Amino acid sequence: MVEDLRMTYGDKRAVDGLSLTVALGSVTAVLGPNGAGKTTVLETCEGYRRPQAGRVRVLGLDPQRQRRDLLPRIGVMLQDGGAWSGVRAVEMLRHIAVMHAHPLPVPMLVERLGLESCGRTPYRRLSGGQQQRLALAMAVVGRPELVFVDEPTAGMDPQARRDTWDLLDELRADGVSIVLTTHYMDEAERLADQVHVIDQGRLIASGSPSDLTRGGGTSTIRLVVTEPFPPSAPASLQATLGDGTVVRAVTEHSLLITGPADASTLAKVSAWCDEQGVLPESLTLGQRTLEDVFLAITGRELAA
Amino acid sequence: MTCPTTPARRGAFSPRPGAAPLPRMVLAQARMETRLLLRNGEQLVLAVVVPLIVLVGGITAARHVGLTFSHSPVDTLTPGVLALAVLSTSFTSLAIATGFERRYGVLKRLGSSPLPRSGLLAGKVGALLVVEVLQFVVIGAVAGLLGWSPAVSAPGLLGVLACVLVGTAAFASLGLLVAGALRAEATLAAANLIYLLLLAGGAVVFPTDSYGPAGRALALLPSGALGSGMRTALLTGGFAVGPLLVLAAWTVLGTLLTVRTFRWE
What we know:
heterodimer, A: 4-stranded antiparallel β-sheet, 13 strands, B: mainly alpha, elongated
């Protein structure tokens, strides 16, 4: 769908030769830290931005030249804004619904997204989470084939988040394709069939959440200590554990060890702590998460 | 705020995309914009209260200062006050509303809906015309109470209609030019300032000949042209072609510049 897209703003390369394809009928997450270029990619697919180089096709259409044919078939959830400040929540949703030939029943969507109690509230007085739910409702009300959602649950409370996820699950079950951007690992793992990890405008990994977390590793041990490590610590622990494990410094207080999390590795880690005179604050075993994958590829945390 | 949610039946969301027919979209947009214009208190002050103050104030001042017009003060001033109403709605209100639509991402949001840009523009113009009709009713009623007796003739009524339509087009193109180039706050300030300047010195309310030698130049302003077109129509029952040509020229200029400079975000 996106082929060798390049976008430069000033001297900043927002998107640098990115190519990715989205399978219809699936949920695709574009995952990356803030500023990775996620929104730029999405807005190019939505026809808001013209590709400076490369080729973008959405449902086989050119989002620039065939915009009028494409728009009725897609739903767009913007990251913020998108309504008059004095418009009432339901009034706004109804307005977008009228633009479509076969819209969803507005009361059903209002109920599903828990917007009944704020139906007559002017947009400017909605909470951030309510504004986001309204934005999602506006994206899906036209019964699109493909929905683009930009950071759908950023800043939502847990209940609103679950409601949003449930709705996205149902859309998928009913055959709607979904492309979402997120910087939440758990969101991508929970929702996506396919994850594209992007960083600094480049695609750095693609696959299903389980492929990505299984690939290259077995399990992880995260060691957090009370005092900062000396700079030599990762190398020294790596030498202690030998081949078959990878040690990376996450912060100056924590190390991530990828490899077999068996009794022998744990014994070696605790012996190393004793020898170095460091006091472990926590030692956590776990499956690799997308968070770890991102860290392993870029050497950086995917901090929100 | 948590509410129990019932799962929708299976298939409730299955895709069935399609744009609504264009007339339905345009009508919906016009109705929405009209409602929002009327809901906004400041805009109503600008649309109705200020023109009425100008009308009543102008008549009172004419009496005290002893300004003499060829017709009675209310007959002379009312056509210009109606022109001022068109100016306030199609220029100032439109510019401010559109400036904030840009700021709040409304234009962006509508840009991804099936409503085409031409439909958005048609909706906006529709809303302006509805608000102008309401303004004319209110101002006309107050002027009537003050003894206004306009010349009623077919060419005159045609002249009013033409002036309102072409005047709205001219001022709307200029309003969109401001709204599409400046930030929302700057648009708010500029649109109000230009309104005040044109009210004071733009030959809208007072005939161009009351400005002395500057009158000729003022007749080339959209405000002067709209004012004198309305006066010709309602004072003498005539159809003035010159002012309409001036307004049409401003429409072309405003539209060309807006198309080149308008930024949607």
